[in-house]
Specification:
6-stranded parallel beta sheet; single chain; 6-stranded mixed beta sheet; 2 domains; Rossmann fold
């Protein structure tokens, strides 16, 4: 019985250095192989299941952080992903059936994926949620969450647009129905009511560029374009150039190109949820739970953002973005 096994595990002292994110390599951790880092004792297997869509480089940072933690702790990391809710739920259930030691999961589609995660909790497998599902994780008995408060982040963007003298904003959602993205734009609208929602297919960036461009041509009153991912921000930049629009671009998340665009003044600012931290802490928290019975956050979400990146701090942050961290 799993609970008996956990109660008999030796308590492992974890030094403060193990928690220092700055000390971690962004290249660590081999997937599906025992990690070679500093963890000792029993070889734990931790599964990470996300809603990553093909071609979305955002998840490289999640995986980089998770791999670094796995490598430093000496655990096996099984990473899998499916953008469709039903398929992601099946992947979670597969890991439950495999009797892994811990599960980290995104809850972008909580109604479908949440019950599978709950079955892990009820079976005695420690589970943490991260990145998506901040309002839902407790409903499925999951005790820990690592991510950004998307409503707060969106409202921060909306209020800043208003303070900057914005007239109309376009909020671009690249995955319709994805709870975190919908919540971001709801927050933008809360902070800046004259916001229009534009749905696009984030897996087809040329089509995204064309759709944004058409909207800008149809409505020249748009003063701000809010995108919810770095690659979509790049498509918005191209659309702006094609149409001659003077709209400011604001985005969520960073990649090296967006960081460089902020430094050059071509993108006003980014709201960074620090995905590297999310991946790292999800694995770290499961390890601490397995080895020392810790639950981090006291039932409350542990926030990794929002962190505003703009001209005031981009020179410091740019090297981290280029190293695939943050």
């Amino acid at each position: 019985m799993r609970t008996t096994r956990r109660s008999l595990r030796a308590v492992v002292a974890v030094s403060a250095a193990a928690l220092a994110l700055s000390a971690c390599s962004s290249q660590g951790g081999a997937q599906n192989e025992p990690g070679g880092g500093g963890g000792g004792g029993e070889d734990y297997t931790i599964a990470m299941i996300t809603h990553e869509a093909p071609g979305d480089a955002f998840w490289d940072k999640i995986r980089s952080g998770a791999n670094a933690a796995a490598d430093s702790l000496g655990v096996t990391l099984n990473y899998s992903n499916a953008p469709a809710a039903g398929e992601q739920a099946t992947l979670v259930q597969n890991q439950v059936d495999s009797n892994v030691d811990g599960i980290a999961v995104t809850l972008a589609y909580p109604d479908q994926v949440g019950p599978a995660a709950q079955s892990a909790v009820e079976g005695g497998i420690p589970v943490v949620a991260f990145n998506s599902g901040i309002d839902d994780y407790l409903d499925y008995g999951i005790p820990m969450y690592f991510g950004s408060n998307e409503q707060l982040a969106g409202r921060t963007v909306g209020e800043r647009i208003g303070a900057d003298g914005g007239q109309k904003a376009l909020c671009v959602i690249q995955e319709q129905g994805q709870v975190a993205l919908e919540t971001r734009c709801a927050g933008v609208t809360e902070g800046f009511p004259n916001t229009e929602i534009l749905y696009v297919n984030g897996t087809d960036l040329p089509a995204v560029q064309q759709t944004i461009g058409s909207s800008l041509q149809t409505d020249p009153s748009v003063t701000h374009i809010v995108t919810l991912g770095a690659q979509v921000a790049q498509a918005a930049q191209a659309a702006k150039g094609d149409t001659g629009s003077q709209a400011e671009i604001v985005t969520f998340d960073l990649n090296p190109e967006v960081a460089q665009a902020i430094q050059a003044g071509d993108i006003a600012f980014s709201v960074d949820q620090q995905p590297y931290v999310q991946g790292y802490m999800a694995v770290q928290a499961l390890y601490l739970n397995l080895t020392n019975g810790n639950d981090i956050g006291g039932g409350q979400p542990v926030l990794t953002g929002p962190s505003i990146v703009d001209e005031s701090n981009i020179d410091v942050i740019l090297p981290y973005a280029e190293n695939n961290t943050r």
